[in-house]
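Q: Okay, next protein. This is Cytochrome P450 2J5 from Folsomia candida. I've checked the sequence twice, so it should be correct. Can you predict the 3D structure?
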Amino acid sequence: MVLSLPLVGGLVVVAAIFYYITRKENKPKLEGKIPPGPWGLPFIGNILQMDWKFPFMSFVKWAEEYGDIYSARMGSQTVYVISDLKMVKEMFSQEPAFAGRLNPAEGVNDLYTNGQMHGVINTEGRHWEDLRRFTLRQLRDFGFGKSTMEGLIMDELGEILDWMKSKEGLPVRDVKQRMAVAVVNSVWTLVTGKRYKQEDPAILKLTKDFTETMDELSKGAGPGIMLPLLRYVGFKGLTLWRNHLENLKALFSSIVQEHKETYTEGSPRDFVDSFLGEINSCKDEESPFYKDVGNRQLIGVIKDLFEAGSESSSTTLSWIFLYLSTFPEVQKKLQEEIDTVVGNSRHCSLTDRPNLPYTESFISEALRYSSGAPVGAPHRTLTDVTYKGYAFPKHTGIMANQYGIHFSPKIWGDPKNFRPERFLSPDGKTFKKHEALIPFSTGRRQCAGETMARDTLFLYTANICQKFEIKFDPNDPKANPGLKSKPGFILSPQQYTVIFKDRLN
Ligand code: HEM
């Protein structure tokens, strides 16, 4: 049958009316109103109305139109987008019903796990609670937030400084890739007891594949990734993702196998050993550590730590290099502070932090301005819940509009200016935390690696600026692409070219 344009048009109108009526009829029995929001089409919701290059910009634009809480539909999934800081904090901290996880790419991710979600990032309920508690405790005991963690970060940073010295005066384009290997190594040592050489081709390939996969996923599918249908159609990003997951799975399985073969009860060497000990002693069938479930969860957690540990910190570091090159006067101030407080005869350490308020303020401004995860990682409701007069049916997606909050003129006054001073006390001597800066989210699911990430950002920024001046390559007209991010769900800088100049020799 050949479909004419008027017929197709008519079908769309009928479907829209049907959708409108059934949407009204399906209004939950739950008390409370449904937040306002943009009109959507049946099956695909608001996906076609979204900015496909920068999907988060649609969420920001709708917030201006519909207010601090509105609803939208991504395919068949309803999401409420929250732009009010107080509400985000209350919902994510106080109400357990909001602590579920909406995984927009569930259809893609489950290729890895036979239809079930694993690890800390993607699980919910008892499994998530037990795994999160275990992970936080184990990583803390092995050094999270303690001086041993500083040692691990500094070991990697030492190699980065040598690498920068070896590249002195030469154009460098792969800052992010190099940082990714260094930051993942610190996590890797804690988790598996091993580290890669930073120039090891295998680890360089894994981190590069991950970045490329993320780029292709967002480029290839845009918000369409929310449509389950897409996984049957296939596109380049999906193929890359499949390959990447297969490679990771093979790597992590061999690491776990090696640990099993050399495991000694009661003497855990690292995170993997501790997890195996938990599996060995678990008798509770409901537990995430029980037998085969435990083995799969272990791989899931390793994957979470590998990906979360490398990607977000290295992306933020790559923004930091871009800001330092774009705002040389900021870089100069930072270096003057370090020269005065630390000098150049020793490394900057975490104990210098309270005495380096401008450096701390610069990092906070970099986190605000880059807003790498513009709508955080979406949550979903675990039960029906009414909150502030609004009805949240079970499994409603919830996104915190972090970008909107980080760029709110009401909160920041001049959000579009890059101005570290906004985090300083009026006399400029003390760093002041700002409650509206939430790059790590807030509440029960707040980033599990925040302490490590903050330590990494501080030690890398302070020590690199102490030793090197960073500027765009003056011989390359394309060295400075500006501050606009690459298209995608996660905001990362476009490729730029910098040169390093040793300040101390
Ligand atoms: C600059 C660096 C980082 C940023 C901006 C960042 C940001 C975030 C955000 C926004 C979330 C979602 C929180 C929510 O659902 O409300 C998250 C979750 C998470 N992050 Fe990070 N992260 C960073 C580094 C790290 C590192 C270094 C690790 C581990 C070594 C890590 C591990 C995790 C884990 C396991 C979760 C899941 C928490 C849960 O669902 O309970 N992150 N992160």
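A: Here is a summary of the prediction. Residues 120-121, 132, 187, 304-305, 308-309, 312-313, 316, 372-373, 376-377, 379, 439-441, 445-449, 452-453 surround protoporphyrin IX containing FE (CB under 6 Å). The CA atoms of residues 272 and 356 lie 36 Å apart.
Q: Noted. On to the next one.
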